[in-house]
Design brief:
Chain A: One of its GO terms (molecular function) is oxidoreductase activity. The complex is a heterodimer. Chain A has eight helices and 20 strands. By secondary structure, chain A is α/β, with parallel strands linked by helices. Classes of the chains: A alpha/beta, B alpha/beta.
């Protein structure tokens, strides 16, 4: 039983069905109608520091590229590569240090000298000192991925119940034995909470705290430009504060990229403002000015629309993946913040392995649901560390 | 920031013009922003006054009502009581913490321009005000029909605009089709300008609205108007084919003819077909109100009798958002006279709320007029509905979204294979409404198709999903970036990153 038909729930449903499990997906709205349809579709490895998230990202890359290779066209998978640029010598040096670590973890990355940048992107600003090119950075169309993963899952015997909200859990003592929904009670051997930004609320229905919070992001969409005006995913990397600081985190400017339709996507801002949907002039303005700093020609280009979404984030910027020992029978796959599209395939495959009682390809300990229950519970993320985000 | 105005009016069509003039005369300090270069809006759209030709004034629709309002606006803006900002589009409306509203405007542009064309980015002009009267009007509602993407097919309002605004005849032999009384002025306008009008193809009955006992008696002016159009149709010998629809627009590279069919008793186009030669096809299925600004501010909306999404207003034109009044087509399509009355009422009500008691009697009178005009509009909507089940007439190859070239077949596939049952999901999976027009043209149709495929009636929710747009009009990124500097974007709450 999968709660939530976002990209994570859809991938989990597909891999679980593939593993021979009987799968039902319940979704309170339309499939994909949550955050998966309100972001972008970047599959980035470039923005991740060595650690569990990068491991998951690399695993997920392989899953998208290999396990799901035959379907990649359905969701417009495109491996267009990412270009990270720095405007100062210091920035270039820090970037070089990061890329060395990343390379050691298996990330493909090419150092690009300042003079070569415009060979990659002819319209880039001339004021840049250098950068790095990440050929693995890719993209897909998230809504198509959700729809086709669910279609494939249905083909394997899964059933999908849209417009059905989970309002409680069936219990047998501590054990979770199914869900109570607006469409009736649905018993299940295991319930997977894939409710994205609302996963904390779903967990609460089972009486377990799970600190998943909304982090708002705006995306700008411009009028269509001629093909190949902007060729890759481009963003600026600057290290925060003291380069010597041990948690030197990669901060990013918005990712600027051209789409097949010719429009340019610029995303995304990051704010913690709850589920506030009002347009923020400072957020839109900052996105525009940072995009122009990279590509001065964008100054003249017109914004056609903006949209926003709420990333599901946890205080330590890592997703929650695995069984919840506090409520046996309840599992989680949520909290992927700004990287849920990229991480979905790997997450789905790993959780399906675990659900089927097999050893997952990747150790899930770092993503354990109960990790927040220890020391300082919940909502104190300390200094925002922006590594948990596929930039947009 | 400049000091806030008492009220900012958006739109200088019949509603906005009346609102701005009335508000200023009641003593309020008014700003009036309008996308068009001169006052008049849709209905009172007219030739460029700087290039007037002799005899032009006679053709001015709305006649004395318009010229009177325009003269008063000139006087008021001359004396500084109205700050009139023509040629500017409001692209963003926000409500600030202290309750005042800020409108961000940009110079009007109507067509895509290439990014290379270097136009100086003008400073963003913003307007602040303690209250808003939104009168954004609407535009032609379109339904897809095979061949409507051929050059020579236009929206009825677009044909009219060319004619009124630029004195340009878009073709020599025209067919005007769709439904509703607004087809008639378009047809007779074309005929007067020298085009041969081969037919008016009306999906519903005859000029029934002038005889509808519920409506016409209560709006005598309208009955007279109808008779005048009928007479004009007869004078120009324009065939009026009722109960008929265009099944296909034919042509190789551009319009050459239309194929029409008579609607059978069950509402399907099963009756006799005929081919009518034409080089211009003007299509109009009623109007779609522009709701970007009201939705942006969070105003409540509902489904109107004609199937349009409209803003909910109370008996004083107040929307659900405090301080935001809405008047004209955005509250329900009902013609220019109703728009004028609503514009006046909103201004009078606002003035009264700020302590001007003088308007009470006037308010009562205007409200009576509005009730009457609303009854008439309701009768009209009942007499000229969009035919039920129209999506079922479409072949898979019919283009629904012209910007993104999405066909009906693409939408059917997204529904049948991918489970899309609502317009938002259809849009995300098949891209209707993702292009330049942002669903202004195909949004109503997409909502109708989603509900028809799912075997249910269209809902306000369906339309809402496709009616909100930010920005309300395209704006250059350079202007947006300038705002970041002004507002100190990237402040503490912001984490857009990169300090470069
Ligand atoms: C602006 C922005 C840009 C982004 N860009 C990228 C990017 O480039 N690359 C990337 O990898 N990620 C990106 N992301 C992040 C990504 O979109 C998310 O991490 C991802 O969509 C999360 O997927 P999900 O399936 O967990 O959640 P969702 O898609 O939100 O799915 C959860 C589903 O659960 C349903 N649900 C909730 N409660 C219940 C209930 N009680 N009963 C039944 N159903 C329920 C919801 O309706 C929803 O459909 C971006 C996010 C934003 C906001
Ligand atoms: C072809 C045609 C024929 C018609 N014939 C008749 C008829 O015979 N009789 C009749 O009574 N009515 C007729 N109408 C209807 C009539 O046009 C409308 O009822 C009337 O114009 C509505 O007035 P309004 O003020 O609500 O909107 P509009 O006249 O549409 O004015 C709205 C104004 O707001 C501006 N605006 C919108 N958004 C913004 C923004 N974001 N920023 C700045 N400015 C903005 C627009 O540019 C426009 O100038 C006809 C309409 C058409 C298209």
């Amino acid at each position: 039983m999968v709660v939530g038909a976002g990209v994570v729930g859809a991938a989990a449903a597909y891999f679980a069905a593939l593993a021979g499990l009987r799968v039902t997906v319940v979704e309170r709205g339309a499939p994909g109608g949550g955050t998966s349809s309100a972001g972008e579709g970047n599959l980035l490895v470039s923005d991740k520091e060595p650690g569990p998230e990068l491991d998951l990202a690399l695993h997920s890359q392989r899953t998208w590229r290999e396990d799901l290779a035959e379907h990649a066209g359905q969701w417009e998978f495109e491996s267009k590569g990412g270009l990270v640029v720095a405007s100062t010598g210091d920035g270039v040096a820090s970037l070089r240090e990061l890329t060395a670590h990343q390379r050691a973890c298996g990330v493909e990355v090419v150092q690009v000298a300042g003079a070569e940048l415009r060979g990659y992107e002819p319209h880039l600003s001339e004021d840049l000192a250098g950068g790095a090119f990440y050929p693995q950075d890719a993209q897909l169309q998230p809504m198509l991925a959700v729809a086709h993963l669910l279609r494939l899952a249905r083909g394997l015997g899964a059933s999908v119940c849209p417009h059905t909200e989970v309002t409680g859990f069936l219990r047998d003592g501590d054990r979770v034995t199914g869900v109570i929904t607006t469409g009736g009670d649905l018993p299940a051997g295991a319930v997977l909470n894939a409710a994205g930004t609302w996963a904390g609320q779903v967990a609460a229905l089972a009486g377990v705290p799970l600190p998943v919070h909304p982090r708002r992001g705006f995306v700008l969409v411009t009028e269509p430009l001629p093909a190949r005006t902007i060729r890759h995913k481009v963003y600026a990397a600057e290290y925060v504060g003291d380069v010597a600081s041990s948690d030197a985190a990669l901060q990013t400017s918005p990712v600027v990229e051209g789409t097949r339709a010719g429009t340019v996507l610029i995303g995304a801002s990051r704010e913690r403002v709850g589920f506030d949907r009002t347009v923020s002039v400072p957020a839109l303005g900052a996105l525009a000015s940072k995009a122009i700093a990279l590509f001065p020609m964008l100054r003249q280009v017109r914004l056609m629309r903006t949209y926003l979404g709420f990333r599901p984030y946890c205080p330590d910027h890592l997703p929650v993946i695995g069984a919840d020992p506090r409520a046996p029978g309840l599992w989680h796959a949520c909290g992927h913040e700004g990287a849920g599209i990229g991480l979905a395939a790997g997450t789905g495959k790993l959780i399906a392995q675990a659900l089927a009682g097999r050893e997952p390809d990747l150790d899930l300990a770092a993503f354990a649901p109960e990790r927040f229950s220890g020391g300082a519970p919940g909502s104190s993320p300390g200094r925002p560390r922006d590594t948990g985000e596929a930039r947009p | 920031m400049p000091h806030p105005h008492d009220v900012a009016v958006v739109g200088a069509g019949p509603a906005g013009l009346a609102a701005a003039v009335e508000a200023a005369e009641a003593g309020l300090d008014v700003a009036l922003v309008d996308a068009a270069g001169q006052p008049g809006g849709q209905y009172w759209r007219h030739f460029d006054e700087r290039h007037a030709a002799p005899g032009d004034a006679r053709g001015l629709p709305g006649g004395p009502v318009f010229t009177d309002l325009r003269a008063r606006l000139r006087a008021l803006s001359g004396s500084g009581r109205v700050r009139y900002l023509p040629g500017r589009q409001v692209w963003l409306a926000t409500r600030d913490d202290d309750g005042t509203f800020t409108l961000r405007t940009t110079a009007t542009v109507s067509a895509p321009v290439s990014a290379a064309a270097s136009v100086p980015v003008s400073a963003p002009e913003s307007v602040t005000a303690r209250a808003l009267i939104l009168c954004p009007g609407g535009y032609d509602r379109q339904l897809p029909v095979p061949g409507w993407d051929l050059p020579g097919v236009m929206a009825a309002g677009g044909v009219q605009a060319l004619l009124k605004g630029h004195r340009t005849l878009a073709g020599k032999r025209a067919v005007v089709a769709g439904t509703g009384p607004f087809l008639l002025p378009v047809a007779t306008g074309l005929a007067r300008a020298g085009a041969a009008v081969a037919a008016v193809v009306e999906a519903n009955g005859t000029l029934g609205w002038s005889r509808d006992p519920r409506g016409a008696v209560s709006a005598p002016g309208k009955g007279v108007e109808a008779l005048r159009y009928a007479a004009s149709m007869a004078r120009h010998r324009i065939p009026y084919r009722t109960g008929t629809v265009i099944r296909e627009v034919l042509g190789d590279g551009r319009v050459e003819a239309v194929r029409t069919a008579v609607l059978a008793r069950d509402g399907r186009p099963a009756g006799p077909e005929r081919e009518i030669a034409a080089d211009l096809v003007a299509l109009g299925w009623g109007f779609t109100p522009s709701l970007e600004l009201p939705l942006m501010l969070g105003a409540r909306t509902r489904l109107d009798l004609d199937g349009s999404l409209v803003v909910v207003v109370d008996a004083l034109q107040r929307s659900s958002v405090e301080g935001v009044y809405v008047a004209g087509e955005a509250t329900g399509v009902g013609g220019a006279a109703l728009a004028v009355a609503e514009g006046r009422l909103s201004a009078l009500a606002l003035a009264a709320s700020t302590g001007d008691p003088a308007g009470t009697a006037a308010i009562r009178r205007v409200r009576r007029r509005i009730r009457r005009a609303r009854r008439f509009a309701a009768a009209m909507h009942r007499a000229y509905p969009v035919p039920a089940g129209w999506p079922r007439w479409l072949p898979d190859s019919a283009v629904v979204c012209r910007c993104e070239e999405v066909t009906y077949g693409d939408l059917r596939h997204a529904h049948a294979d991918l489970g899309a049952t609502d317009p938002r999901t259809l849009k995300m999976l098949a891209r209707p409404g993702m292009g330049w027009c942002q669903g202004r043209i195909c949004g109503f149709a997409t909502a109708g198709i989603a509900s028809c495929l799912s075997g249910r009636p269209s809902t306000a929710e369906d339309l809402r999903a496709l009616s909100g747009r930010t920005p309300a009009a395209p704006v250059r990124l350079g202007e947006l970036a300038a705002l970041a500097e002004e507002t100190g974007g990237g402040g503490p709450a912001e984490e857009t990153g990169g300090s470069s």
